[in-house]
Amino acid sequence: MRARGPASQPSLDPGLGFAPAGPTPRSRPFPRMPAVWFEEKLIYYPVRHPEGLYAASSRPGGPRDVDLVAEDGVRLHAWLREPAAPVATFLFCHGNAGNLTHRLDILERLAAAGIRTFIFDYRGYGRSEGKPGEEGLYRDARAAYDRLAAEPGVEPGRIFAYGESLGGAVAAQLTLDRPCAGVILQSTFRSLRAIGRETFPVLHLLARHRFETEAKLARIAAPVLVVHGEADTLIGPHHARRLHEAAREPKWLHLVPRADHNDLWEVGGRDLVLRLRRFATEDAARPVARA
User: Fold this and answer.
1) 72 catalytic, yes or no?
2) Domain encompassing residue 43
């Protein structure tokens, strides 16, 4: 999830083992507080405006600021990065820390491959109002889809839901809620409880948040691409294999050798971008015969 350089996104916080964080420390002491508050602090690591790379939207050829409102009235902020000649459209559901500006390098890589990308900040992140929560994130994704679908040149049924880490569960739910051309799950866990069992064997039993990616896949009819680092030490590649097994056909699994959770884009490089483009323009476009 992290690409270094001037547009690097934050490094991971150890919480449940999947939170991207940037200039923040790689480890934090565990606070002593009520379980619900503790759970939310382990899951969500938002970085609020003005911290981030917001100046990018004022540069020629950079992402465009977009404002939208969720169904419950929460105001959200998004970026649209439009390449010269788009061949595919991704709706990017980012991970659980930082904000959309920390994915600027990813937007640029995708734009160079002709992929239009709409990335939004969940409630409580960046410039978006409100407080994050599982159902709220699902509402935010639906609002982002509806706003993107209203853009000139965007065909709603040709939008691909892209989920990064925790965002994979959000993308999977979006694919159930709106017509998507396909779903891409990058560095995603099977469920919050599954990753919690590996990290906090007792705390996961108290979890209110579910984020059940694996359970959603059985109901998704759209093409699925699972992307994961083979050396991911935070969300192990066994999660990717289980997600791939749970998905219906057509489905693909792309493991990036030597890639950890934070350096997938660095290690995957151009090959990763081309794989994503091929999925959107070739694999997902093939007619599927279902029994």
Assistant:
1) no
2) 12-283
Residue range 225-244, pLDDT digits in tens: 999 999 999 999 999 999 99
CATH number assigned to the domain comprising residue 160:
3.40.50.1820
What pLDDT band is residue 289 in, cutting at 50, 70 and 90?
low
Write phi, then psi, for 17 (nearest 5 degrees): 90, 15
Domain annotation covers residue 3: no
The pLDDT of residue 218 is above 80: yes
| Residue 1, in any domain of the structure | no
Provide the residue type at 193 as one letter.
R
Of residues 8, 11, 128, 165, which has the active-site annotation?
165
Q: Is 291 within a domain?
A: no
Q: Which of 23, 10, 19, 9 is nearest to 40 (CA)?
A: 19
Annotated catalytic residue within 11, 102, 261, 263: 261
Our answer to whether residue 102 is catalytic in this structure is: no
Instruction: Tell me how many domains the chain contains.
Output: 1
Residue 22 in any domain: the answer is yes
Answer yes or no: 260 catalytic: no
Per 3-state DSSP, what percentage of the chain is helix, strand, and coil (rounded to 5)?
Answer: 35, 20, 45
pLDDT higher than 70, residue 188: yes
Residue 53: what pLDDT? 95
